[in-house]
Amino acid sequence: MSNLVLAEHDNQSIRPATLNAVAAAQKLGGEVHLLVAGKDARPAADAAAKIAGVAKVLLADDAAYANQLAENLAPLLVSLAKGYKALLAPATTSGKNVLPRVAAVLDVAQISDIVKVEDGDTFVRPIYAGNAMATVKSSDPVKVITVRTTAFPAVAAEGGSASVESVAAVGAANVSSFVGQELSKSDRPELTAARVVISGGRGMQSGENFAMLEKVADKLGAAVGASRAAVDAGFVPNDYQVGQTGKIVAPELYIAVGISGAIQHLAGMKDSKVIVAINKDEEAPIFQVADYGLVGDLFKIVPELEAELGKQLGK
Amino acid sequence: MKVIVAVKRVVDYNVKIRVKADKTGVELSNVKMSMNPFDEIGVEEAVRLKEAGVASEVVAVSIGPAQAQETIRTALAMGADRGILIKTDEEVQPLAVAKLLKAVVEAEAPQIVILGKQAIDDDSNQTGQMLAALLGWAQGTFASKVALGDGKATVTREVDGGLQTVELKLPAVVTTDLRLNEPRYASLPNIMKAKKKPIDEKTPADLGVDIAPRLKTLKVEEPPKRQAGRKVASVEELVQALKNEAGVI
Ligand SMILES: Cc1cc2nc3c(=O)[nH]c(=O)nc-3n(C[C@H](O)[C@H](O)[C@H](O)COP(=O)(O)OP(=O)(O)OC[C@H]3O[C@@H](n4cnc5c(N)ncnc54)[C@H](O)[C@@H]3O)c2cc1C
Ligand SMILES: Nc1ncnc2c1ncn2[C@@H]1O[C@H](COP(=O)(O)O)[C@@H](O)[C@H]1O
């Protein structure tokens, strides 16, 4: 039996998180199919067909799916569920919004944020902000799963040649509508996919001071993130938040600046390959997870870091 | 209009939890328990709706052991009017919680049900969406702003790319995100007053809901520990180490 992955896309192209969800689906065995539900989403479906390891792309093109409203998407997934042993989506705000709705209608559990596939029924997922790992076994006929993207290396976006098949739309539920959105614009890499992330906390003192981190980010091709305290204080927008209840990142290099290292923050970044902490308090818990710690005033250290990177990397 | 808020009793967010040696779960004896922080935000939002004259009654519902009463009392001290405890000592997973809440909703007929986006113990982030699905209602998840209008709610949602605004037909389900509001502390007089507010007790059987878990926890383990690193003395040493030792820049 096959597995169906709900693709994340903007009708034109496929978002990278989809590639991690495909990787998790492959571990379940059987074919991987991708569902592209959108409006005028043919270009996204064509891009999906090129993803390595995808056997078939289902395209549901309808105004009801233009903005990925969960109330409209869930019935579509439910209508397709028969014949699949698992339905998966990346554990993004979009996947988390839709899949529990699908699971409830199918009367099955939803398995959130898996980090490992033991077998077709058994999965590992973090609980308590990642301070414990639970191995859970599902007895339901169809598994509805969201995937922690950092735990499954992305499959290649190119190299596949799947067929694209149109599927019938099931129409709008007519209980909700899209009003608008304010998306953060940035030329930087996406936080969850970046090779390097530099995050600022309450210690940054203001939004203006984040410009210092951006200069370092420019040198390293990094994304910029933040702690909850920095977001709550209005220094940066909500989508910068890294942590248990924000974004989960696992870059090659994570630089925490003026962040104390609360468990809720660590939950979002402790799987990074190398962690650097810059903090004036040498007792700050962040140093317990840092590979390299630098104790001192960030307002002195960060500009120095920018200059030193310029010198040593020749940029 | 009536508002229902779901409040879960969880290990306090400040507690550093410990995994049990026999790997059956997390140590819960002698551990401080509190209301799930996202549910405090939910209660605050509901109470503000009442203070603004929009809501007529706020009902706090919790599912759990007898001690979940304390969680309901906290909600009552913050300003909720009455509570419903669905008492059970069994593990209740999100799908079962959603079914129990659905039964409560059918009896109470609220216009809005507010839940937290996520319980900080199981980190599931499912129950609100499941409840909305079972009821066939609209959902405004991860809400950072809720405005009620005539028969509708306009909800601003925290999404990965920024903020999204949706309009929901009422009745609807809303789940809270961190920026929705800052919950109040209950004052002493209000804590006293809360003791007199009614809490109705029911069981899952009273509501005719099968709560048997669908997921079996085979084991719970500690996550891999990070090796402790070292302190560097200067920015120059840091950059050298990142370049030559770690090879990440
Ligand atoms: C339900 C819930 C969910 C949460 N979810 C998240 C989440 O997803 N992500 C998250 O990050 N947090 C989350 N939190 C919040 C978390 O508990 C902490 O409050 C938060 O992470 C603290 O942010 P911070 O480290 O920036 O601030 P603080 O803890 O105030 O630390 C600031 C640090 O900056 C240092 N500093 C100050 N000035 C300087 C200077 N000039 N130079 C160098 N260092 C300096 C200080 O020494 C201190 O260590 C959550 C909390 C709750 C209750
Ligand atoms: N046992 C429970 N009692 C009351 N509310 C609950 C319970 N479990 C979950 N909820 C609600 O559902 C939200 C999301 O929980 P979860 O889906 O488990 O992450 C919580 O913030 C609560 O509002």
Features:
heterodimer; A: 315 residues; alpha/beta; seven-stranded parallel beta sheet; five-stranded parallel beta sheet; 28% strand; elongated; B: 249 residues; nine-stranded mixed beta sheet; two-stranded antiparallel ribbon; globular; binds flavin-adenine dinucleotide; binds adenosine monophosphate
Molecular structure report:
The complex is a heterodimer of chains A (315) and B (249). Chain A is α/β, with parallel strands linked by helices and 315 residues long. Chain A is 25% helix and 28% strand. Chain A has helices at 17-26, 42-49, 70-81, 93-106, 210-220, 228-232, 263-266, 298-313, and strands spanning 2-6, 32-38, 56-61, 84-90, 110-114, 116-119, 122-127, 132-138, 143-147, 163-166, 176-183, 196-200, 223-226, 253-257, 274-279, 292-295. In chain A, a hairpin with a 4-residue loop joins strand 7 (122-127) and strand 8 (132-138). In chain A, helix 5 (210-220) runs parallel beside helix 8 (298-313). The model of chain A has no long low-confidence stretch (mean pLDDT 97). With 249 residues, chain B is α/β, with parallel strands linked by helices. In chain B, 27% of the residues lie in helices and 31% in strands. Chain B has helices spanning 37-51, 68-78, 94-108, 127-135, 188-194, 235-245; strands spanning 2-6, 9-11, 33-35, 57-64, 82-87, 112-116, 138-149, 152-159, 162-169, 172-176, 199-202, 215-221, 230-231. In chain B, strands 9-8-7-10-6-1-4-5-11 form a 9-stranded mixed β-sheet, with helices on both faces. In chain B, strand 8 and strand 9 (162-169) form a beta hairpin. In chain B, helix 2 packs across helix 5 and helix 3 crosses helix 4 (127-135). The radius of gyration of chain B is 21 Å and the shape is globular. In chain B, 50% of the residues are buried. The mean pLDDT of chain B is 97. The interface between A and B is large, with 90 and 83 residues. Strand 11 of chain A pairs antiparallel with strand 9 of chain B, so a sheet runs across the interface. Flavin-adenine dinucleotide (FAD) sits between chains A (201-203, 227-230, 241-246, 258-260, 262, 264-265, 268, 279-281, 284, 297-299) and B (13, 37, 120).
